[in-house]
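hey m, so remember when u said the tokens were messed up on ur end? i reran from scratch. heres the input so u can diff it against urs
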Amino acid sequence: MPLGHLGVNVSDLDVARRYYGALLPALRFEPFLDHVDEFAYRPAGGKPGTYLFFYPSERPGPYSRRSTGLQHLAFAVPTRGDVVRAHDLAVSLGSVVVEEPKVFPQYPQPYFACFWEDPDGFLLEAVCHHDRD
């Protein structure tokens, strides 16, 4: 069965709302709900896929992808150009880039991706599994 949704706790819901409000439409997601205490996105245009819900953290503390829990979120995009555009958007949003867009030969090919951190340090990835630009 496909994954229905993911819930992500964030340190500042308003910061996350602005950040993901700019980022997720470029990754082919659309708003699903927007409440004072949560917001969510779903795949755009009725496409199947995983919904993303964001909630305020109930316990403050630093996030680490090296600890037990969420390691990273990868967004599959249809072209390598979309990977580059995601990278450029992440940079424009002030994100820390972890890996520039490139081929990752250690993964099953074709695998063209980039990695960056969101405002809480969550590792995000845009990946294209095709050789098309």
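this time it looks ok to me. The chain has a mean pLDDT of 95. if urs says something different then somethings off w ur setup not the seq
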